[in-house]
Specification:
The protein is an alpha+beta fold. 23% of the residues lie in helices and 29% in strands. The protein has a six-stranded mixed β-sheet with strand order 1-2-3-6-4-5, covered by helices on one side. Helix 1 packs parallel to helix 2. The longest helix is centred in the middle third of the chain and has 18 residues. The two termini are 18 Å apart.
Length: 128
């Protein structure tokens, strides 16, 4: 099965040897997204709610580049710096993904890249 690399200027560019996403058949595997502004590459510093919104906007931009929407998500992994912030993360997550949410896991990570408060990676089903 051939792989297709997905790339968009609407999400932060990779900082290492990885793709923003890879499509394999009907599935799209989205690399970990940080709350980085795609234009400047800088970390959003306005708090965990704003960081969560930015991460989901980055996921959305990648999905759109692959011809999908947030509704295509089937699995999201959420990493939070402090589990105490999860209530706020969950409120934004529910606002943006709550009507038909994907499967999800949440894990506290002692340190995320760039000292972000939240990060996510995802898998989407792009078939019919």
């Amino acid at each position: 099965m051939p792989r297709q690399i997905i790339s968009t200027a609407g999400a932060p560019q990779p900082s290492g040897p990885y793709a923003q996403a890879v499509r394999a058949g009907d599935f799209l595997f989205i690399s970990g997204q940080l709350p980085l502004d795609p234009t400047t590459g800088t970390l959003v510093r306005a708090g965990v709610r704003a960081q969560t919104r930015r991460v989901i906007e980055n996921l959305k931009a990648i999905l759109e580049a692959a011809g999908g929407t947030l509704a295509n998500l089937v699995k999201v992994s959420v990493y939070v710096k402090m589990m105490d912030d999860f209530i706020q993360v969950n409120e934004v997550y529910a606002e943006l993904l709550g009507s038909n949410p994907p499967a999800r896991m949440v894990s506290e990570s002692s340190r995320l890249p760039k000292d972000a408060q939240v990060a996510m990676d995802a898998i989407a089903y792009m078939g019919s």
